[in-house]
DNA sequence: CATGAATGAGGCTTCATTCAT
DNA sequence: AATGAATGAAGCCTCATTCAT
């Protein structure tokens, strides 16, 4: 029984396409993905995909944009969550949301983080930009939650810490894949812990 | 005037080809690299490349193998360096060698670490194997240098720490690209520092 | 704000479509024109265009037919113009009308004269037929206005002269594009002049 | 029996390709020609065509260039022919060579003269340039052979006359296709005759 | 050893055309 | 009357790979 409908409104089809594309691009390099496989997975044909998303690069860009925005939104919502307990740590909440996204949306994360690291290919430009925006978001999170802790070079230090946090989260997420017995929540705690620990060690060091 | 010689002995030509290929594969996906461009960069023609390395996959495999072995050898040599001072920390020396390789051989590292992260492509198998061997090497390094510190789950914990160390090193190396004012040596120290710090924090935690 | 009206009577919409199509077909080959662009320029959608004109070939045919008839009608009206002065030369009037059309309706003329010169394409059949009808019209004009001047092979000679007149008019029209300082009227006079001059020279030549 | 050889030197294959392409482009619009048909007609495969000529546009450009140069060379050789009789008219010789080319190389002429008249397509740029060069060549021919006859606006007038001569030759050549009984030589004579007759009529007119 | 010549296979993209509403 | 949705078919171009010299 095919559940995929014929004749869907554009908005829905477009999302299905991006869903399929995220999966495809997470599985292999940009160049190893064939547009046809995306079309089939989305229950349509190549021409429709081109009609909506313009080009293979357009497909990729749409993926990166949608998933990047989702991740950033997830972090922000967690940080500003009005239901959070009063004494709760916003940095912890933000990092938790971040790690939850990274582990719970492997495919999105792979596209965002891994596929951006290619030089000189036009399709990588958007990915690279989005990668930076994500890094900045985490950096801002750290900055805004640790005022004063970092000393003079706040922004720069926060950026480096953000990179470390992100790559650590990535390593943890990878680890989870091979070790399903571990609890993601515990892992999330550790990412936050490590970040805090780095922060504390910065207090004594004049510069990293 | 071409400086590349005609009629070189096989071993030399092969190395030139692999040099060219590492550069090429570091610049973009496996699929975005054309065999012809490798041949040209190596100062030969396509048929010769095929004669020596067999296929595109063979070229890639040769790259991964050579660079992987070089990295592993570099770590081992540093750890067992007979010229090292008596009180010197072997873990520190090993991590330093590792980080030195990662930053000093960007192209090799990119091929080794980034191009391996693709599923379902035959060419990725060797890379994935080599990636694991590198992780294991770092894991062994940690294990052998911290006997007792990690508690019961020594090996497993060491592996996780190795992953974090490697991904952190990768993040630092990236950071260096955007911040040339930082000293690679200082960064190397920090990678080691962070690893140690994680190790210490493990002593108190019941399980990661 | 779209100025094109929705829900127009069929005849009007059809004319708008043909207008748009003539413009489109004058700009490039038959094959370089997309039906969608015609639909858009006509303020409708593709299905409507198909509903009215049947197929791309149908669109092209409609253009050729309409513009061809317009040109022929223009010549005839000029020749038989009841308001023309008594001693006026009908050949001159006809040639003038012809040239006026050619320069004043560049797009129509381009479709009629240039797009017909393709072999083996079904869409060219109608254009070719219309091209011949136009030639014949000019040939008839010459024949009917110069009875006796041409000698025995009247019709054949008139046809050749018609071809020369037409291609000369085309050359003049092209020339006008690059030299806006020239007056179309003067050019029209010259086309007629040249035709007359050829006619006179035929009188003495035994055979062209 | 296939006469086409496998494994030909590049220079030869390239010429065969251009031969095939001229034929193909003369038969229909640029867009109606498929690269594969050119490859087949040249006894090769598409990739080889692309390897040598780069792109469809490159194929077209190569045709226009080669045939244009041939035509221009033919005119020049005829004009400067050292074997020509002393009292012979160079204009007549040049026009004869021109007309001989136009009728004897229908396909080349069609590509040069007809396929250039498309706006806004990149492939037409070279054709347009070559078309102009041919016109200029004929214009120069007229100028250099009629010093003083044209009055003050020599160059401009010569250009207009060149256009008329060319379009007339085109009309004659077309006519010959439908009337094989006519002698090309006689036609060539008429083209020259008409050009001279126009020239003479210019002597009295102050400006065309 | 070395390479110029050649191609099968496959991917991106476009377009005329139809359907269902 | 009108159109948003959808696609089969086809064309341009690239690339890994093989021969024959």
From TrEMBL, chains A, B, C, D:
Protein name stated in the entry: TetR/AcrR family transcriptional regulator
All residue ranges annotated as the HTH tetR-type domain in the record: 11-71
Organism for this UniProt entry: Nocardiopsis codii
DNA-binding region: 34-53
SUPFAM superfamilies: Homeodomain-like (SSF46689), Tetracyclin repressor-like, C-terminal domain (SSF48498)
UniProt KW keywords: DNA-binding, Transcription, Transcription regulation
InterPro entries hit by this protein: DesT_TetR_C, Homeodomain-like_sf, HTH-type_TetR-like_transc_reg, HTH_TetR, Tet_transcr_reg_TetR-rel_C_sf
Signal peptide: none
Keyword 4Fe-4S attributed: no
């Amino acid at each position: 029984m095919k559940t995929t409908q014929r004749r869907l409104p554009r908005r829905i089809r477009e999302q299905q396409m991006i869903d399929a594309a995220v999966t495809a691009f997470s599985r292999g390099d940009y160049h190893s993905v064939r547009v046809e496989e995306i079309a089939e997975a989305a229950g349509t044909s190549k021409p429709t995909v081109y009609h909506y998303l313009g080009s293979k690069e357009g497909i990729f860009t749409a993926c990166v944009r949608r998933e990047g925005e989702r991740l950033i939104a997830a972090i922000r919502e967690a940080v500003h969550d009005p239901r959070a307990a009063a004494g709760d740590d916003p940095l912890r909440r933000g990092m938790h949301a971040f790690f939850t996204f990274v582990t719970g949306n492997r495919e999105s994360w792979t596209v965002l983080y891994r596929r951006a690291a290619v030089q000189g290919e036009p399709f990588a430009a958007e990915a690279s930009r989005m990668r930076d925006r994500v890094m900045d978001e985490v950096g801002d999170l750290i900055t805004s939650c640790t005022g004063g802790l970092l000393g003079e070079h706040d922004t720069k230090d926060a950026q480096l810490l953000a990179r470390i946090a992100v790559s650590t989260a990535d390593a943890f997420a990878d680890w989870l894949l091979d070790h399903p017995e571990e609890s993601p929540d515990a892992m999330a705690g550790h990412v936050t812990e490590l970040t805090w620990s780095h922060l504390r060690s910065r207090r004594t060091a004049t510069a990293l």
